[in-house]
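Listing 4. Sequential folding, example run.
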Amino acid sequence: MALPKRKISKARRDKRRTHYKLSPPTYTTCPQCQETKLPHAVCLNCGHYNGRKVLEVKEKV
């Protein structure tokens, strides 16, 4: 079975792992109320999705 000849340093190991990172979430604007929302999701402010009202939103008191 193959074994490494030398120990891989922490710096070299971490350089290899630099590509595993989270990307920030993308946001779009709602065409109805112009609030930011996640793409392909119901707008939590007005309840519209794809030009139709699909969610009844309660007013904040």
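-- end of first protein; second protein begins --
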Amino acid sequence: MSAFRKLDDLGDVSGKVALVRVDLNLPMRDGDVTDDTRIRAAAPTIRDLTEKGAKVLLLAHFGRPKGERSSTMSLSMVVGAVEEVIGKEVMFVPEIAGDVVAQAVGILRPGDVAILENSRFWKGEEKNDPEFAKAIAANGDFYVNDAFSAAHRAHATTEGLARLLPAYAGRSMQAELEALDKALGNPEKPVAAIVGGAKVSSKLDVLKHLVGQVDHLIIGGGMANTFLAAKGVDVGKSLCEHDLTGTANEILDAADKSGCTVHLPYDVVVAKEFAANPSSLRTCNVHEVAADEMILDVGPQAVEALGDVLKTCRTLVWNGPMGAFETEPFDMATVALARTAAALSKEGTLTSVAGGGDTVAALNHAGVAEDFSYISTAGGAFLEWMEGRELPGVAALAK
């Protein structure tokens, strides 16, 4: 990963205007923010800049208004939640560029904060229109990107502005990039990757990239069934993409060539119906799955063996659950493996980086999220990074 400018590289910014891209795409219910995680992620950057006397203008998108104004997607709805987290008054500006923003900047004192309107109300945002970016940049002195979750999109506020103003990574972006570098950029070996989730099709590029990068690839979730079927195992009624068994075999061959060991479950938890604690629940060898049964989790013997694999590793990247973890008892493998990884991380023998919505939910469910070295809240950006792609919003911050 190329070097990028951080907030520590800023000179005197007192009275200067910082255009700060954050992630305020927050979950709402009845007009109230239900989870302020993303605001808390941006708070250190906002505090840092306000304490240095900058005037901070927050840029963000909210929902998918497709270039039209919509009262239900106005960022005015999140102002109260932002004020609560950062502990100071926040001005709302109903525009993103032009005279109205210039007037707001004139009213703001050094150390004040304003939120500009939803960047996606303007078609120029998603088109990364240079004129639109120029109009926004006209009211700022420098640009800070603190939204890794939007860094995989080349939009005006994630990429365009970085080309027009001195650009820096915010605190949460910096933490994310440093953690990702430790996980796959420049990791301590041996490296293990756990990839789970329902479908191989959604993570094909991830799997293809990882077999050339890691020493151990642990495949769980529904996608493991497709790999088992590729190896000639009858997976019964299990979720399985039978049309992708050829691709699964290609990935296994590529792993073989690059010296990556692929771990598939050899004992599994099965049931005839997908429900909590079904009467037909049993654990069996993968070769004993009946035609009317479905595989819903990795079995205890495989989980123990995988725990032993993690004990030999120094780095772990995790994306996706091992089984249908939302329904008990099919959360057993995910929880057990997460607890092993967390204990190793706490001991200091393993650097563990996890990302993606389901993964974060699974680690919280296991009660171990706090003990992982780093948890990325980004979904699409984290996956694209695992695919080895360059993220436009990150590339634009390079020195």
